[in-house]
Amino acid sequence: MRRPPVFVSLANYPMPTNSTEEAPKVHPDLESVMFTEREIKERVKSLGKELKAAFGDGEFTIISIINGAVLFTADLMREIDNPVRLDCIRITSYGEKTQSIGTPHVIHSLTLDISGRHVLLIDDILDTGKTIALVDGIIRKLNPASLRVCVLLDKHGRREVPYEADFVGFRIPDRFVVGYGMDFAERYRNLPCIGVLKPELQKPPEWA
Ligand code: 5GP
Ligand code: MG
Question: N or C end of the chain, less CB within 10 A?
Answer without folding.
Answer: N
